[in-house]
Every structure is written in C-alpha cells, then in structure tokens.
C-alpha cells in the first residue's frame, strides 16, 4: 500500500527548514551528477532569507511532512505553470514523496486553469520527470550563482 504524507502550504516561518532541506538534498543527492564546485554554487542559491521571502511571495509552495510535522519535501509553482522547485529530503528519497507532491501541484494547477507545466530540471531529476509524463524540450546551461550547469527544460500538458 502506498503511503500518503500530510501536506500543507509553506509559510515564512518555514524558511530555515526549506533552506536546510534545499542545501542538504543538493549536497547529498545531486552530487552524483554535478561537480563539487557546481554543487556548492547551486546550494548557495538558497542561503538568502530575502530570496526565500521573495519566492514565498510569488509562488505557491506545498510541503510534505513526516509524522512529527517536519518538512520532508517541498514543491513550488508560479501562476503561469512554471514549476520552480521540487526537493525531497536526502533521507526520504524513493518513498513516493516527489510523486505525491507533483500530483498535488498538478491538481492545484488544474484548479486554476493551468493547462501546461514547464520546469527546468537537473540531470538527477530528469528520469523522475520523464516517468511522470514530462518531455524534454531542450538541454541548456543555466547559471546558479557563478557557474553554469546543465539542466533540462521539460514540460507536460495537463
């Protein structure tokens, strides 16, 4: 039987948890596809509290929680259907959390008339998104802070 995790919208009070999850996931999970310098550059993108406040003011954020109410994954989407982020805690990988978050984000999008979701996904995340029905539009080099890294523009019609 598939486990369903409780979810809730993210608030400004969650920034420290989001920042820590973002950094630790990139450092532990994405290291298989990116260099240590790329990982540190990418992970540093989540260091600024002001940056997180700006994201929270412009995106819909959904968090998955463990039994004690801690955030174990999150996803965010813009009003135009751009999936900005999806990260699952390094200790909670391969437990259906990303699939659940994406399903709930897609349902949210449909409720607001969004008919297509686009995203820029890492090398690491590409196979997951392909299994969820997303197709690669193009490969690109995207700047984190200082360095450019390969990722993929992907989309799915809802």
UniProtKB/TrEMBL annotation:
Domain N-acetyltransferase span(s) in chain numbering: 5-158
Keyword Nucleotide-binding: no
InterPro entries noted in UniProt: Acyl_CoA_acyltransferase, GNAT_dom, N-acetyltrans/Recomb-assoc
Coiled coil (UniProt feature): none
Entry-linked SUPFAM superfamilies: Acyl-CoA N-acyltransferases (Nat) (SSF55729)
Listed GO MF terms: acyltransferase activity
Listed name of the protein: GNAT family N-acetyltransferase
């Amino acid at each position: 039987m598939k486990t369903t995790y409780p979810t809730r919208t993210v608030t400004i009070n969650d920034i420290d948890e989001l920042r820590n999850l973002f950094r630790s996931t990139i450092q532990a999970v994405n290291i298989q596809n990116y260099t240590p310098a790329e990982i540190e550059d990418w992970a540093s993108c989540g260091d600024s509290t002001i940056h997180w406040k700006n994201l929270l003011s412009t995106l819909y954020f959904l968090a998955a929680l463990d039994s004690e109410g801690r955030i174990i994954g999150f996803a965010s989407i813009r009003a135009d259907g751009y999936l900005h982020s999806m990260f699952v805690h390094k200790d909670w990988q391969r437990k259906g959390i990303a699939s659940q978050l994406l399903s709930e984000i897609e349902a949210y999008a449909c409720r607001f008339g969004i008919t297509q979701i686009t995203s820029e996904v890492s090398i690491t995340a590409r196979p997951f998104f392909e299994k969820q029905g997303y197709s690669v539009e193009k490969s690109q080099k995207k700047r984190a802070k200082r360095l450019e890294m390969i990722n993929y523009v992907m989309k799915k019609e809802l």
